[in-house]
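Researcher: We plan to redesign the surface later, but first we want a full-length starting point. Tokens attached.
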């Protein structure tokens, strides 16, 4: 019997309540899940997600960005924590800080993010309002590799939801977040398991990932 491959050591970066973080922590409890959540970091000491992580038994620390003179100094402190914990993959889950290009490039192919739209549509903020204003009939969420350009990295996975008559930003957001909580653990499993690898600015999927593709994109 072949030995089970070691799980990738993952840090989750948050700024708020950490709802996607919780879905990842729960998924990672499965014995066959290829990632282990070993650290949660936040740029906000008051982030509710820090408490939720600690309650789940995961080390969780705040690195207050306001205590640093510039982004590079903050990123250096972040890097020190990641190095100390032996982190192999970074997962951004509602992390509301723009990281320096140098930091992003140092983690190329090892950092993913979830964005509440079907990229490349509606990069940035207020995505649900903008989707409604544009008259979209489909909306959703995207997991992508992080690159220096905001919300522009190669796409790992997407999930779509219908935009219904009478929707407002809150009802649409609630429908999307359900899919985020399903999609992000599935996408992290692909990345951590080596089934969705960043190569030459594109995501290369293994045959196993392609066979599972129907479970990644849903309506």
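Model: Full-length starting sequence:
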């Amino acid at each position: 019997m072949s030995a089970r491959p070691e799980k990738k050591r993952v840090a989750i970066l948050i700024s708020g309540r950490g709802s996607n973080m919780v879905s990842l922590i729960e998924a990672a409890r499965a014995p066959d899940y290829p990632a282990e959540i070993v650290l949660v970091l936040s740029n906000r000491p008051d982030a509710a997600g820090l408490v939720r992580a600690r309650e789940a038994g995961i080390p969780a620390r705040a690195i207050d960005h306001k205590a640093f003179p510039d982004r590079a100094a903050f990123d250096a402190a972040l890097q020190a924590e990641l190095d100390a914990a032996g982190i192999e993959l970074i997962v951004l889950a509602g992390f509301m800080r723009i990281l320096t290009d140098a930091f992003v490039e140092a983690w190329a192919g090892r950092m993913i993010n979830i964005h509440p739209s079907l990229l490349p549509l509606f990069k940035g903020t207020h995505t649900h309002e903008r989707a409604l204003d544009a008259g979209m009939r489909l909306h959703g969420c995207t997991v992508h590799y992080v690159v220096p350009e905001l919300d522009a990295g190669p796409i790992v996975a997407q999930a779509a939801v219908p935009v219904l008559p009478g929707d407002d930003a809150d009802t649409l957001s609630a429908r999307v977040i359900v899919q985020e909580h399903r999609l992000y653990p599935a996408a992290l499993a692909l990345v951590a398991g080596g089934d969705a690898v960043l190569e030459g600015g594109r995501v290369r999927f293994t045959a196993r990932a392609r066979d599972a593709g129907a479970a990644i994109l849903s309506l």
